[in-house]
Amino acid sequence: MNRYLRYSIPLFIFAIIAAFLFKGLGLNPREIPSPLIGKPIPEFSLPTVENAETIVNKVDLNGKVYLLNVWATWCVSCRAEHETLVRLSRSGKVDIVGLNWKDERDKAQAWLRQLGDPYTINIFDKKGRTAIDLGVYGAPETFLVDSKGIIHYKHAGPMTMTLFNETLLPMIEDLKHKG
Amino acid sequence: MIPELGHFALILSLCLAVTQAVVPLVGSYTRTTSWMAASRTLAWGQFVFLSISLIILTNAFLANDFSVIYVAQHGNTKLPDMYKISAVWGAHEGSLLLWAFLLAAWSVAIASFSRNLPLEMVSRVLSVMGMISIGFLLFMLLTSNPFDRTFPVPFEGGELNPMLQDLGLAIHPPMLYMGYVGFSVAFAFAIAALLGGRLDASWARWSRPWTTVAWVFLTLGIVLGSWWAYYELGWGGWWFWDPVENASFLPWLVGTALIHSLAVTEKRGAFKSWTVLLAISAFSLSLLGTFLVRSGVLTSVHSFASDPARGVFILIFLLVVIGGSLLLYTWRAPYISGGGRFDLISRETFLLGNNLLLSVFAALVLLGTLAPLIYDALELGKISVGFPWFNKMFLLTTPFLALLMGIGSLSRWKHAEPSLLVKQLRVAFVISLLFGLLSLLPVFSGGNWLVGLGMGLAMWVATAHLVNLRDRLKHKHGFAGFWVDFKSGGRSYYGMLLAHLGVAVFIVGITMVSNFGYENDVRMSPGDVSEIAGHEFLFEGVNQIAGPNYNANRGRFQVTKDGEHIATLEPEKRTYFVQTRPMTEAAIDWGFTRDLYVSLGEPLGGGDWSLRLYYKPYVRWIWLGGVLMGLGGILAITDRRYRTARVRSAEAVNTAGVAPAVSGR
Fold first, then answer.
1. A20 at the B interface (CB within 8 A)?
2. How many domains does chain A have?
3. pLDDT in tens, B198-237
4. pTM attached to this predicted model
5. Mutate which of A76, A77, A81 to disrupt the B interface (most B C-beta within 10 Å)?
6. B304 pLDDT exceeds 80?
7. Residue A145, strand partner residues
8. Chain B closest-CA separation from residue A76 CA (Å)
9. pLDDT level of residue B654 (50, 70, 90 thresholds)
10. Core-most of B228, B299, B380, B555, by most CB within 10 Å?
């Protein structure tokens, strides 16, 4: 019996993979994790991309409606959406807070120098811990957060002008009105 | 009416596939010659009907028959004819048809070029191919019929994704599929051997050339894809570790291990069960790639339209094919005899090392690719494994591979004398060490150890193989001596040499481009000059031009170096009429040692543009290396050994004490 055991290892490995694939079919990688909507953003205390000494906390972001954009220099789609973000921040319609994810500081800084910096604050999450708390699946992702730090919307994938104008802007106007 | 004929041809192919799966297999057990011989005819039948389907679908595109949903989605009257043809496999349904067609083409190739194989083997191999074909045809007919109609008929089609309107991408999928599907042959041989319990050197010799052909196609397909990504996506990158790219890279890694392991099995009779496992894995990973791309379980820039029903179907298919074959493996593998013994220092050991490294790397890539899914399924949150992780894993494994490559190809089978190896490789080692250290000097890289490592390893692979060549030609005289050796059975050796030199070239390419590449993202007004790596780019402004199915902004650059004119570059930003997504067409001045690369970003008003300028040293060497590997493979298959295999395999079969094979024709 032992001799079969040894040769059945590949079969077991495949069984495990297949189980995950089966589970994966029921999951949607682009789906918004609904539990986060209506909940506050997670607690964090992280330095900024510009300066390792400046520490930003969750409360520092409160007081304004903003977009929280998760990005990284290794992420190709982030590059694609960057021009849109720069355009948005120039329009003055909303503040954008960056969450630089699993990245290197000098690369991130060089990127901002070259492509323009749309962010009012840019948080440096090297370990990706806060991104995990936020349920980030892949960069880029953008959250709409109100002045009390409550998440109202999440978009996975690059930001587009259409998405902003048609979906986000009405929500932003609404939130600004309320709060 | 004509598309229905295509649909009907698919159904007939399915009937033939079922027959092909059952009749020859039964015949091989009952020793009914006519039943076994039917496998060849049935393979031809399937091929004919799938050709009819493919031609009908192509014709629907060329004739703009938008009553066919698939054509209405991806065809367009304004599409140039070449892209109407490539649109056939430009999306899910059609690409499946291409898969099935290529599978039939491979089956026919086996049916035709298998005169020297025992009929029993041929019938089992074709039967397994028939089973795979059943899966694909059912998948198509049940969930993804390319011939479905729509009413009312739209006036105009939705057009092929503009990104895919490109020569490189028109031929990339067929090449890649030839590779994926080709591994089904190695798989079928392995299964047939497990079924028959005949896993000997002749089995390895039969499946070796087929596996190499598949590997060559896959290699060239990946090279094409990488090259396409480089010039078409406009970011100057050549590999993104995207799930779909990984889906092609995984079978390649395991396939590479397989062709090396097959060599050991053929020459020394060792590693048999391991080789079989690799053959099963290479094809399983090809299938898994299909699942990942089409089921929507992972997000990717390449994703096909995903549909849960399709996902369920492919998963069941995977369970049957992979699960079934691994079950067979578990049942039969314990009875496979071990091969010849070998010493610790021997070619066998080094090839085993190569196999393990390739497999470990493949496992790591698989883990990275599936990690988001695993995390999500375990409810640990959603993660994405990016570039940095894969690059780290690449750096962890591949240097050892390059090291082993140098030693392995020089050492002898069974027992290699360590002192002789040291003597042979001493010079190569010193040269590569010096070369690596030299590249660390401030004038070159200023102590960047990655550069030192890359250059040293490339030199090591190159010099070790040159030593190898020198030893081989020691007793031969001049070019004539080489030519005689080349013609008289040395081709597989020279193929190996060429492919391994391709690896050295590839290492130089990635080392140079990752460490000495420059990029500049700038805003420029007409008349501005931007300098990058000693090249001055003069921006002359942007004009509007009209293409067949798009409008474009075309920029114009004059590039000079030290006052000398180098090139005129004209990057474009296209807006296609139907799918209005803007597309960048980078302009590249290519060179053997460097590319100059410009792509247009966004108009910033007043004639200003944001632009991306790149200096990419030795980037062509990456693809050149891949092409050399492919050519090496082609050279190896033309080796005389495979053409004279008839006599020797017959001997092997008889000496193995198996009942004499019945000659089919």
1. yes
2. 1
3. 777 788 888 999 999 999 999 999 999 899 888 877 777 8
4. 0.81
5. A76
6. no
7. A66, A151
8. 8
9. very low
10. B555
Question: A178: distance to nearest CA of chain B, Å?
Answer: 32
pLDDT of B244 reads: 80
Mutate to test the interface with B, among A1, A2, A11 (most CBs of B within 10 A): A11
B301 interaction partners in chain A (CB closer than 8 Å):
76-77
* Distance of alpha carbon B533 from the chain centroid: 34
- In chain A, residues with a C-beta closer than 8 Å to the C-beta of B280 are 10
3-state secondary structure chain A: CHHHHHHCHHHHHHHHHHHHHHHHHCCCCCCCCHHHCCCECCCCEEEECCCCCCEEEHHHHCCCCEEEEEECCCCHHHHHHHHHHHHHHHHCCCEEEEEEECCCHHHHHHHHHHHCCCCCEEEEECCCHHHHHCCCCCCCEEEEECCCCEEEEEEECCCCHHHHHHHHHHHHHHHHHHC
Q: Please, which contacts does B528-537 make with residues 24 or more away whose CB atoms are closer than 8 Å?
A: B530/B611, B530/B613, B532/B613, B532/B614, B532/B615, B533/B594, B533/B615, B533/B617, B534/B561, B534/B562, B535/B559, B535/B560, B535/B561, B535/B566, B535/B596, B535/B615, B536/B560, B536/B561, B537/B569, B537/B596, B537/B598, B537/B613
Contact call for residues A142 and A67 (beta carbons, < 8 A): yes
Does residue A52 sit within a domain?
yes
pLDDT value at B400 more than 50: yes
Residue A1 lies in a domain: no
Contacts of A74 in chain B (CB under 8 A): 386-388
Assess contact for B382 and B274: CB atoms under 8 A. Answer: no
Name the percent of chain B lying above pLDDT 90: 47
Instruction: Number of A to B CB contacts under 8 A, please give it.
Output: 119
Report d(CA A68, CA B205) in Å as an integer.
Answer: 59
- Which domain CATH number covers A149? 3.40.30.10
Where residue B556 falls (left for φ over 0; alpha for ψ -120 to 50; beta otherwise) is beta
Q: Is residue A16 part of a domain?
A: no
- Its ipTM equals 0.82
Give the residue numbers spanning the domain of A38: 34-178
Q: Which of residues 293-332 of B touch A (CB under 8 A)?
A: 295-299, 301, 308, 311-312, 315, 318-319, 322-323, 326-327, 329-331
User: What pLDDT digit, counting tens, does each position of B444-466 carry?
Assistant: 877 788 899 999 999 999 999 99
Position A60 in a domain: yes
Question: What pLDDT does residue B338 have?
Answer: 73
Predicted confidence band of residue B49 (pLDDT cuts 50, 70, 90) = very high
In chain A, the residue whose alpha carbon lies closest to the alpha carbon of B610 is: A115
- pLDDT, tens digit, 9 for 90 and up, residues B87-128: 898 888 898 999 999 999 999 999 998 888 889 999 999 999
Give me the residue from A10, A25, A138 closest to B384, CB to CB. A138
**Span B485-519, pLDDT tens digits:** 888 778 889 999 999 999 999 999 999 998 888 88
Amino acid B180 reads Y
Residue ranges of alpha helices (H) inside B517-644 are: 619-637, 640-643
pLDDT of B658 reads 34
Pick from B627, B622, B504: nearest CA to B217: B627
